[in-house]
């Protein structure tokens, strides 16, 4: 019965996503949404993928990584090479971007994920800067001047990648492997003592997160026409980290909501470049003062729905509802 309810909830959510996608595509084709709102919508989608992928690494597995921009860069440049240099279709470029970033995640993950806390953060930060410097001096992809890329990111591709990212990460989190990752987050020593291969699961989460960051890189590269190494500095990693922290460490719903809200705030503040970062920073400070655990904490939206249902009462007794 429980699995039936979950399946019903999943397909209901997918139906809502499909309806939303079709309506949005209709508005884009009809010109109701101008280029400003379309770009904002695309930025929200890309940021949701980035936030969800980092959520798996930090929120679920508890590994403090601040090199996510490096995986974004690897995916962006790999996809650009596939489409612009090799002339292959965009779907191939998306897959290639994810695989390239996943391989990079595996290479950096095996030696560094034996580290913990601040040491891991410094190591991943170093990885992100190494990637940026490599592309900065790589003439094949334009070096410092960047690489011109065709606009191939469309709304159907974007919403499909967002949906697949969320479904895969949510299912992974609810699986046996996901529970092993959560146990590592809660107490790595205890998890190791219980026989969980902590290094294996940390690398697994790192590789999956890197894969979807690479997918976001492909969508990013083919949406903004040009990619430059300066777009993938360590500040970009902190921007992605902020999405996860503001949303709530351990909450997928929080990461998605934070990605939507902060992207909207940043987009509309672009009309005020002089005070944009000041206002944006004040919003973050106020948020951390009054809601330090993030928007959702460790809870998901579904947990609030369950609370609402249980409050109505459980089994009937003498004609009255009893609370569970």
Automatic annotation (TrEMBL):
Q: How does the protein's chain sit in the membrane according to the entry?
A: Multi-pass membrane protein
Which stretches are transmembrane?
9-28, 40-58, 65-84, 90-110, 117-135, 155-173, 203-228, 240-265, 277-296
What is the protein name for this chain? Branched chain amino acid ABC transporter permease
Q: InterPro entries of this UniProt entry?
A: ABC_transp_permease, LivM-like
Could you name the Gene Ontology cellular component terms for this entry? plasma membrane
Record keywords, A-Z: Cell membrane, Membrane, Transmembrane, Transmembrane helix
**One Pfam family named in its UniProt record:** BPD_transp_2
Question: What PANTHER family does the record point to?
Answer: HIGH-AFFINITY BRANCHED-CHAIN AMINO ACID TRANSPORT PROTEIN BRAE (PTHR30482:SF10), HIGH-AFFINITY BRANCHED-CHAIN AMINO ACID TRANSPORT SYSTEM PERMEASE (PTHR30482)
Query: Example GO molecular function term?
Result: branched-chain amino acid transmembrane transporter activity
> Where's it found, cell-wise?
Cell membrane
Q: Which residues form a coiled coil?
A: none
**Tree of life domain:** Bacteria
Task: Look up the signal peptide feature and give its range.
Answer: none
Chief subcellular site? membrane
């Amino acid at each position: 019965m429980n699995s039936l309810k979950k399946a019903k909830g999943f397909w209901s959510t997918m139906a809502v996503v499909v309806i939303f996608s079709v309506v949005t595509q209709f508005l884009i084709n009809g010109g109701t949404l101008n280029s400003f709102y379309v770009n904002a919508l695309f930025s929200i989608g890309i940021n949701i993928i980035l936030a969800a992928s980092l959520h798996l690494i930090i929120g679920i597995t508890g590994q403090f990584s601040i090199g996510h921009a490096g995986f974004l860069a690897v995916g962006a440049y790999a996809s650009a090479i596939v489409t612009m240099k090799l002339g292959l279709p965009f779907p191939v470029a998306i897959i290639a971007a994810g695989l390239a970033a996943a391989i990079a995640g595996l290479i950096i993950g095996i030696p560094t994920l034996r580290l913990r806390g601040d040491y891991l953060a410094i190591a991943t930060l170093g990885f992100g800067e190494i990637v940026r410097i490599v592309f900065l001096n790589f003439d094949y992809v334009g070096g410092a001047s960047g690489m011109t890329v065709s606009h191939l990111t469309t709304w159907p591709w974007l919403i499909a990648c967002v949906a697949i990212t969320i479904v895969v990460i949510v299912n992974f989190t609810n699986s046996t492997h996901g529970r092993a990752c959560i146990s590592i987050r809660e107490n790595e020593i205890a998890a190791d003592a219980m026989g969980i291969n902590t290094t294996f699961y940390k690398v697994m989460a790192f590789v999956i997160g890197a894969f979807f960051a690479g997918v976001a890189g492909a969508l990013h590269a083919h949406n903004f026409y040009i990619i430059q190494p300066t777009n993938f500095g360590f500040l970009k990693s902190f921007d992605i980290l902020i999405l996860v922290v503001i949303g709530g460490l351990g909450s997928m719903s929080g990461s998605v909501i934070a990605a939507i809200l902060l992207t909207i705030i940043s987009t509309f503040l672009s009309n005020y470049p002089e005070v944009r970062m000041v206002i944006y920073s004040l919003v973050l400070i106020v948020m951390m003062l009054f809601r330090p655990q993030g928007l959702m904490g460790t809870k998901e939206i579904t947990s609030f729905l369950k609370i609402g249902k249980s409050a109505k009462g459980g089994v009937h007794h003498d004609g009255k509802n009893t609370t569970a």
